[in-house]
Design goal:
six-stranded parallel β-sheet, 30 helices, 13% strand, 20 strands, globular, ten-stranded mixed β-sheet, binds pyridoxal-5'-phosphate, alpha/beta
Length: 723
């Protein structure tokens, strides 16, 4: 383990949990306290104990073991092969954890406002958080000395349902931390370790939870402490609270509190990685330490800068949060005082033009200014970010890019992984960024690949049937109508997915752009297809909610009748089923606002083909034979670009996608389609896996910070050695 703090507390949790299990399967409690089982497949053991309860617990192993019936546990403990497999999984995990990195005093601190680790833990909203989760998982796999730092939101991100008119209703549910694989970090007296951050002159106390993501610890700060005032306990209640003062308070806890927490745990980070501007107060806390130790502010900031790197994640204004001078000065005055600055001087750091008092205080601006490097998340985004921040990029402030990637074992369906295990060898994921790894992809037969594609679609369709029937019934829908409608959604039909946060630039509305044409296509008959839509509109985004409502209203049109479904409450669980089961994954961002996008990568590695605007990652990822790309750089972005892009989607669908999907040989296999599926898996799993991403970060961003402490380095070098 890279850091010991809290490790004993987690172990105690596991030992307590083990005490309620039959002795032969007590090892399940050890497995339960590390999220790693969610990507190694060892979590199948829990499912085998009681599949129904496993699902009820949203695949959260700690809650599952607390709730599983004594009879189910006893039954499992009486099966010798099961006991042997539990023991083997515990031994494998122990060996993996022991293989380093050993205790590293100076890890990289990866600081982010959201982490998407698992569907049972709603501490993420979308792509940013899931990317952060994938980075931790990959760092664990590679043995990179890294620790995550974030906030534990008592209610997490909102959940979504639609009322009978299709209007989005948001609601929140509390996490019960004790039912999750986490533990409070305690001090030498066994009391919860806490740190305090002054907010508007009042010290706010946070406690620290530890979660283990394989070999990488994630520390989440939580202000829901009895000592705090009720209003302050609420600061960490919700991710992306609407109240702006509460937002700044969260960023203070994340940035300042995060660094203080690391100190309290004896960690002196070699490098602080700010994953998006929310974390940008962290380097100022580093500077404050130096000021407290006697340094002047300028040299304190210069030293902090040398230890900080920054990743910006979006060119969209809402994602580059700014605050008025008034808002910011109310909440940042304690920090200014601690830094020996006037509030006005502190605010200067968050402006493109420091002297322009009319400019708001921006977190991205602050991040760029307080970091030694800034990177965007795709080649295109690097270009866009350089233009966007041009006025600040003097001398040693440059913007580069590291294109995002996805953690393959998290996002690739197990059926597909098993196919690769056989064809590529069981270690393929250790060498995923190496082109040689994927040569053996050609040894998988078309029939086997098609068989897996069919299975994945069938699973999605079954899930659609279940979810849409339950949702319809709970909206007071007619049972007979619902039953007939779900039967129209057919597991042999080409299935198109569109699922993402419903931000305006993602242009969900294009799907309904020319409704008559879309309806005519849907009822066309010869080449049937169906569409699954999912996504959450921001609670204050009424335009987004109206788009959802309009699509929802169309569903009862006779020509649609069950062929278009909207699934509520898009999250990591639903995303995994969707990206695996859809045949085509549609993304229609307004160029060039899609910084990267990652859901299309998840789709492609499952053999689901992208049909997307050439923006973000797809501009790099599209090879011409691994999906469909259109629009983007070099195409006319003026006039009614929405209408043109909508037309182009329909054209590609009718002229290319549908004929190819339904062109079958005498064995019923769509050969040309499968060739594309194969190309998509090989190219995207290699070029857009988290392994490649983290190798890029290590080489071009982290630099010397990763040179030590790392024992196991998969990838090119190692692969060559084997040959
Ligand atoms: C991968 C993922 C995202 C990011 O998707 P993009 O549309 O590519 O930005 C968002 N939400 C969930 C639940 C995801 O799994």
């Amino acid at each position: 383990m890279t850091v010991e703090a809290g490790a004993a507390d987690l172990r105690r949790g596991a030992v307590d949990l083990a005490a309620r299990l039959p002795e032969p399967v007590a090892g399940l409690a050890i497995l339960a306290y590390n999220y790693r089982t969610s990507w190694t497949g060892a979590d199948a053991l829990f499912q085998e104990v009681d599949a129904r309860r496993w699902e009820l617990c949203r695949a959260n192993p700690v809650r599952f073991l607390q709730e599983a019936s004594t009879s189910a546990l006893r039954r499992a403990a009486s099966i010798p092969q099961f006991v042997t497999r539990v023991e083997a999984a515990v031994a494998e995990q122990d060996a993996h954890l022991a293989a380093g990195p050993s205790s590293v005093a100076r890890p990289i601190a990866f600081v982010c406002a959201e982490f998407g680790i698992h569907r049972s833990l709603r501490t993420y909203a979308g792509g940013l958080g899931i990317l952060a989760g994938d980075i931790l998982k990959e760092a664990s796999d590679q043995g990179l000395p890294l620790v995550g730092v974030g906030l534990l939101y008592g209610q997490g991100y909102f959940r979504q349902r639609l009322d009978h008119s299709g209007w989005q209703i948001e609601y929140w549910t509390w996490h019960d931390a004790e039912l999750h694989p986490m533990a409070l970090v305690t001090d030498t007296h066994g009391d919860p370790l806490t740190v305090t951050v002054p907010i508007r002159g009042i010290p706010v106390t946070v406690r620290i939870w530890r979660l283990d993501v394989g070999r990488v610890p994630l520390f989440l700060l939580d202000a829901d402490v009895a000592r705090n005032r009720r209003v302050d306990r609420w600061i960490t209640a919700r991710l992306y609270v609407a109240d702006r003062a509460a937002r700044i308070a969260q960023y203070l806890l994340l940035g300042r509190g995060g660094i203080k927490a690391l100190r309290a745990m004896g960690v002196d980070p070699a490098l602080v990685h700010l994953n998006e501007g929310h974390a940008a107060l962290a380097p100022l806390e580093l500077a404050r330490e130096a000021v407290a130790a006697g340094a002047d502010f300028e040299s304190a900031l210069a030293a902090a800068r040398e230890r900080t790197v920054f990743t910006t994640h979006t060119p969209v204004a809402a994602g580059n949060e700014t605050f008025s001078g008034h808002e910011a000065s109310l909440l940042l005055s304690d920090l200014a005082t601690d830094l020996g600055l006037s509030t006005g001087d502190l605010l200067r750091l968050g402006r493109v033009h420091p002297d322009d008092g009319s400019e708001p205080f921006g977190l991205t601006q602050l991040g760029i200014r307080t970091s030694r490097s800034t990177n965007g998340v795709s080649r295109r985004h690097g270009i866009v970010a350089r233009e966007m921040w041009h006025d600040m990029l003097t001398g040693n402030n440059a913007v580069t890019h590291v294109t995002n990637g996805v953690h393959l074992r998290t996002w690739m369906a197990r059926e597909m992984q098993r196919l690769l295990d056989v064809a590529l060898g069981p270690d393929w994921h250790l060498h995923a960024s190496d082109p040689h790894t994927w040569e053996a992809l050609n040894s998988i037969s078309d029939a086997d690949l098609w068989e897996v594609r069919q299975q994945l679609r069938a699973r999605l369709v079954a899930d659609v049937h279940d979810r849409s029937t339950i949702a319809g019934l709970s909206r007071g829908g007619n049972a007979e109508y619902l039953e007939a409608a779900v039967r129209t959604f057919d597991d042999r039909h080409l299935t198109i997915g569109f699922a993402r946060r419903l931000a305006t630039y993602k242009r969900l509305h294009l799907l309904a752009h020319n409704v008559d044409r879309a309806l005519a296509l849907l009822s066309g008959g010869a080449h049937p297809f169906q569409i699954v839509i999912a996504g959450k509109a921001h609670p204050r985004d009424d335009a987004g909610k109206r788009t959802v409502q309009r699509l929802f209203e169309q569903r009862t049109a006779p020509s649609v009748a069950g062929r278009v479904v909207f699934l509520e409450d898009y999250d990591m669980g639903l995303a995994a089923t969707l990206v695996a089961g859809c045949d085509v994954w549609v993304n229609l961002p307004q160029f060039p606002l899609e910084a990267s996008g990652t859901s299309g990568m998840k789709a492609a590695v499952n053999g689901s083909l992208n049909l997307s605007i050439r923006d973000g990652w797809w501009e790099e990822g599209w090879t011409g034979d691994n999906g469909w790309g259109f629009g983007g750089a070099g195409t006319d972005q003026g006039g009614d670009v929405d209408a043109r892009d909508a037309d182009e989607v329909y054209r590609i669908l009718v002229d290319e996608v549908l004929p190819m999907f339904y062109e079958r040989d005498s064995n019923g296999i769509p050969r040309r389609w499968i060739a594309m599926v194969r190309a998509a898996i090989g190219s995207v799993a290699m070029g857009f896996c988290a392994q490649r991403m983290l190798q890029d970060y290590s080489r071009s961003v982290y630099g010397a910070a990763t040179a030590s402490g790392r024992r196991h380095r998969p990838g090119r070098g190692r692969r060559r050695e084997r040959r």
